[in-house]
UniProtKB/TrEMBL annotation:
Membrane topology field: Multi-pass membrane protein
Keyword Coiled coil included in the entry's annotation: no
Protein name: G-protein coupled receptors family 1 profile domain-containing protein
Taxonomy of the source species: Eukaryota, Metazoa, Chordata, Craniata, Vertebrata
Listed transmembrane segments: 31-53, 65-83, 103-125, 146-168, 206-230, 250-272
GO cellular component, one term: plasma membrane
One GO molecular-function entry: G protein-coupled receptor activity
InterPro entries: GPCR_Rhodpsn, GPCR_Rhodpsn_7TM, Olfact_rcpt, OR51/52/56-like
Domain G-protein coupled receptors family 1 profile: 46-296
Subcellular localization(s) per the UniProt record: Cell membrane
Species of the source: Maylandia zebra
Keywords assigned: Cell membrane, Disulfide bond, G-protein coupled receptor, Glycoprotein, Membrane, Olfaction, Receptor, Sensory transduction, Transducer, Transmembrane, Transmembrane helix
SMART domains: 7TM_GPCR_Srsx (SM01381)
Length: 325
């Protein structure tokens, strides 16, 4: 399996393949794979529907729904990067993965998870301006400003994740090639190396900060400002109306960050069976993308109105078609 080259007078080993050991010796695991297949199908349908709805209904062509569109797109891409490959690897027992394919797999899964996190930050910014500066909202939150923010997020995260994945190439893998994960996760891969991994460890720590800590600090700070602004509002009805516009976003934040937080805290404070940890981690990566479009469809008035509008147009077209016949 190993391809060995000489580098700086030391033996440098780059493997041809890695072996993914996830979900080993779990009874009835095929039911979990069937569940993942269902999750993926529903994720594609839900996010595909939301993307189509935002594209087709002109009333949703606003800066706020540009952010929602970005969220649905990254949910769809993130699930597509992960779930089909997980099913192919473990359902059909194709656990060996080429070295370059492993690094690509690592990049796309971590990248789309990072974009999801920072899209939630962008949504929080939108709510902050809408509630704290309502009279200036349309001059601050414009299509141009949201495009610039989202473009910066994508370019910045591509640079960071590409650097992190690229640094794996400097590692020599002269010991085990068994990755103790359900995908080519950064930590389980770089820990297999037999040369200095301190730079990779630092990048992994930076990623935790970029993916979880900094976005959470931004979102919490945003809602502190929102609650302070609302506390100065005399009308109780106005407060409730303003908070109602934040409900969908708060649910998405909880769905995304709570499972990640629980998984990491549990891993640091107690022993978790590796298989239980992997199943929990798989659900953490996949369930938010399934629930996001459902939350937006059920909790957002504009989306419900857009659905009704499309349904009415469809009904009228059907009636016209029947009348012509």
């Amino acid at each position: 399996l190993n391809k060995t080259t000489t580098m700086f007078n030391n033996t440098f080993v780059r493997p041809a393949k890695f072996y993914l050991s996830g979900f080993s010796n779990i009874p009835h695991i095929r039911y979990f794979y069937a569940f993942l297949c269902f999750v993926y199908i529903m994720t594609v349908l839900g996010n595909g529907f939301l993307l189509s709805l935002i594209s087709l209904v002109k009333t949703l062509h606003t800066p706020k729904y540009m952010i929602v569109f970005n969220m649905a797109l990254t949910d769809l891409c993130g699930s597509t990067a992960l779930i089909p490959k997980v099913l192919d690897t473990f359902l059909f027992d194709r656990r060996y993965i080429l070295y370059d394919a492993c690094l690509s797999y690592m990049f796309f899964v971590i990248f789309f998870a990072s974009v999801q996190s920072w899209t939630l930050v962008t949504m929080a910014y939108d709510r902050l301006i809408a509630i704290c500066f309502p009279l200036r909202y349309h001059s601050i939150v414009t299509e141009q400003s949201i495009t610039a923010i989202l473009l910066f997020v994508w370019i910045f995260l591509v640079s960071v994740i590409a650097t992190m994945v690229g640094l794996v190439n400097r590692l020599s893998f002269c010991r085990s090639l068994v990755v103790n994960s359900f995908f080519c996760d950064h930590g389980p891969v770089y820990r297999l190396a037999c040369n200095d991994t301190s730079l990779n460890y630092n990048m992994a720590s930076a990623l935790v900060a970029i993916l979880i800590i900094i976005p959470l600090i931004f979102i919490i700070a945003t809602y502190v400002c929102i609650f302070i602004a609302l506390s100065r509002t005399t009308s109780r009805e106005e407060r409730l109306r303003a908070l109602k516009t934040c409900t969908s976003h708060l649910i998405l934040v909880v769905i995304f960050f709570l499972p990640i937080g629980i998984t990491n805290i549990a891993a640091m404070t107690s022993y978790i069976d590796p298989n239980a940890r992997m199943i929990n981690s798989t659900l953490t990566h996949t369930i938010p993308a399934l629930l996001d479009p459902i939350v937006y469809a059920l909790k957002t008035e504009e989306v419900m109105n857009a659905v009704k509008k499309l349904w009415n147009i469809r009904t009228k077209l059907l009636r016209t078609d029947i009348a012509k016949r």
